[in-house]
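Dear support,

Our group has been running a series of protein-ligand predictions, and this particular one with flavin-adenine dinucleotide is the one our PI (initials K.S.) wants archived with full inputs and outputs. We had some confusion internally about which version of the output was final, so please treat the block below as the authoritative record. The input we submitted was:
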Amino acid sequence: MGYNCVVLVKQVPDTKRITGKVMNDDGTVNRAALPAIFNPEDLNALEMALQIKDKSACPEQGRGGGHITVISMGPPGAAKILRDALFRGADDAILITDQRCAASDTLATSYILACAVKKIAPDIVLCGRQAIDGDTAQVGPQLAEKLGVTQITYVEELLEIKDKTITVRRNIGNGWQQIRTRLPVLLTVTSDANEPRAAAAKRMMKYKNARTAVELEREIRIQNTEVSEEYTKELVEKKCGELKEKGLLIKQWDLDYIGADLTWCGRSGSPTKVHRIQSVVLAAKESKKVVPSDEGISNMIHELIEDKIIA
Ligand code: FAD
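Confirmed final output from the archive:
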């Protein structure tokens, strides 16, 4: 049988490729100095969904392996990673974009994502373990709570999926656990789980023109500067219809569409308050050369224990 999977993906600043001044003087992040990328572990989550689909497909019986929807909550530019997900094998993509999402902490983010996921009612929800910018690893578990489904975090291997049961191996730091549970389930997937497949050339040709309505509107406004507002809206509607027919319209949902209670979204839904931001510059004060031998390392460890740096 095929499974209905939802994969949550986040566009994040590439913290490994800093190209300018990362922090603004007011302590906020200068996003322009960091290229935006697909959150790495979300690629592992997508790959696991693709493996589930591959495992459950039966081409001899003309049966596909289910359906994969990728969802991202973010600004209009996040459509870029949704296209990337379509290139890699996702069937459908949804962007939740709404000014009223701004300033959402993890609680508000997971609430908004839960409202969207409930509209799809999937068998399996897959998240990355952690986003490389927020770094909290809270969204997956919070989302499972809000959906009222079983959660398995730190999944490092998909072992079996059969009928309505899934078996995975999860990392517990100093070992692993094998867990079997009935669907529906939410998994958070680690970078060790798999090697994400590359974008397929054929799919890139097919989906390179996939757009959200907001992207279309922006392109149409750039190309038609002299036309009336009414005509621009007509053009956007017409172009959206054409793309939808070809299966190239990336769905765009707002908070009204997903039926979100606004008091749980954005700033009002976010109990986390940032009181102070401090830039910490780590500077080496002193250094010591360690002789690269067993004795040298042993002496260093004894010194660290004596100085109570390690126990
Ligand atoms: P994690 O919990 O580490 O992510 C785990 C997994 O959850 C990811 O791998 C992914 O699969 C999924 N996931 C996480 N976020 C998303 C998403 N957006 N869409 C789809 N899947 C997702 N951020 C802003 O962009 N704008 C703001 O104005 C803003 N204001 C904030 C204000 C406060 C007070 C705080 C505390 C945070 C704010 N943030 C803002 C950051 C925002 O809360 C986090 O980016 C977001 O909640 C995700 O948390 P995380 O990055 O720690 O994700």
